[in-house]
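Reminder to self: tokens first, then the designed residues, so the page reads top to bottom the way the pipeline ran.
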């Protein structure tokens, strides 16, 4: 058992829950930081059965002093900074708030670590969104250019570069995981994969007839969240800090993901039309199951993201395992089970 202490900001989110479980299994004492909420935000931790094993504390990333106090209270060996306004679409509506939480929030954390205990190892949740439409034939890697396409991506590029600066300027052990999209049944329902798995179950149960989506052509490199948190932890165990792309190396379109999710319940979709008129139809009965609503289009969107995880494979010994059809089936089956027992 490790006997180490870790502080996770954003403990109530998808990655917070899976990383906490992984660290608990490794013998860590896990401190989980969440912001004040008017209700219970520990649903994901409860679903994994670990809510009572986490030492909870309140941290709002817009408040410098409470981040500093949290570090003094927890005395962590490692800090994982997940807290963020993480929904890209919402960042166009809330650019200043997104910049404050994601950009300045990470800087507040870094400055607190530097002042309180600069030996603490820091993990920053960076993102493939920072690459924008920068392309790269063999997949995007740590040396690919950044061309952020949303307020979210700009805010995350700022915090990513601050991590690099604190590493260089102060010799601190700060690492960034440049993670491509990773999903699970614990994904927020506003994100495309969970929106689809949740919608498939609602249609199968007769509660709705179709799912309204935006850009069906967008391609993402989707992986499984429980696998990705293993890479995050591995980064902080290296003697030398650094930045690592974590991805599968394979991308699929939103349309593909819908096909996989419906196939999980035995429905084959056929696609007709183009642009806003495109529909996905149940081949067995002609019912429209997917249609386009332009309100889900973004002011700017990334057409294709595909990563090259060669460095993570070589230096962390990390490999993705779950395929996207398996991921879609896992999400649909879990949502179906939750619906049957009445937890959604
Ligand atoms: P998530 O489910 O949206 O979780 C975000 C967490 O941040 C939640 O616990 C949320 O708390 C917390 N938070 C938001 N605003 C805060 C504030 N002002 N102060 C304190 N906490 C705040 O995101 P995720 O999917 O787990 O992702 C974890 C991190 O990785 C995020 O930084 C995200 O941007 C980044 N990332 C995610 C992916 C991905 O594909 N999942 C890929 C690359 C990078 P509430 O529960 O109270 O809202
Ligand atoms: O699931 P999404 O909302 O994820 P997005 O924007 O790629 O961001 C996620 O992954 C990033 C890593 O690359 C993280 F940094 C970030 O925090 C977040 O976790 O959308 C994926 C794609 C987009 O191109 C979007 O336009 O799906 C397209 N899409 C089409 N219709 C839709 C919809 N997305 C959503 N959320 N809802 C739709 O109806």
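Designed residues (344 positions):
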């Amino acid at each position: 058992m490790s006997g180490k202490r870790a502080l996770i900001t954003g403990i109530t989110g998808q990655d917070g829950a899976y990383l906490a479980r992984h660290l608990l299994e490794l013998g860590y004492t896990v401190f989980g930081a969440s912001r004040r909420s008017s209700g219970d935000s520990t649903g994901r931790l409860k679903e994994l059965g670990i809510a009572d094993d986490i030492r909870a504390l309140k941290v709002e990333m817009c408040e410098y002093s409470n981040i500093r106090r949290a570090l003094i209270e927890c005395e962590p060996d490692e800090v994982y900074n997940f807290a963020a306004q993480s929904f890209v679409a919402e960042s166009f509506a809330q650019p200043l708030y997104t910049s404050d939480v994601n950009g300045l929030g990470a800087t507040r954390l870094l400055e607190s670590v530097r002042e309180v205990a600069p030996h603490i190892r820091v993990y920053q949740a960076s993102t493939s969104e920072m690459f924008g439409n920068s392309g790269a034939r063999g997949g995007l890697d740590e040396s690919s250019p950044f061309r952020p396409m949303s307020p979210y991506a700009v805010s995350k590029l700022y915090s990513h570069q601050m991590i690099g600066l604190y590493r260089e300027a102060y010799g601190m052990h700060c690492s960034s995981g440049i993670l491509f999209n990773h999903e699970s049944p614990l994904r927020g329902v506003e994100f495309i994969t969970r929106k689809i798995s949740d919608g498939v179950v609602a249609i199968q149960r007769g509660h709705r007839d179709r799912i309204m989506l935006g850009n069906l052509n967008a391609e993402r490199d989707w992986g499984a969240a429980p696998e990705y948190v293993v890479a995050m932890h591995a980064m902080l165990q290296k003697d030398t800090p650094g930045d690592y792309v974590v991805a599968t190396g394979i991308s699929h379109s939103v349309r593909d993901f819908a096909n996989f999710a419906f196939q999980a319940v035995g429905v084959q979709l056929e696609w007709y039309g183009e642009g806003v008129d495109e529909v996905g139809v149940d081949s067995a009965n002609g019912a429209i199951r997917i249609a386009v609503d332009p309100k889900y289009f973004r002011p700017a969107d990334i057409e294709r993201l595909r990563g090259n995880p060669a460095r993570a494979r070589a230096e962390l010994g990390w490999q993705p395992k779950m395929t996207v059809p398996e991921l879609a089936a896992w999400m649909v089956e879990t949502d179906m089970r939750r619906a049957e027992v009445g937890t959604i």
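The first helix runs from residue 14 to 25.
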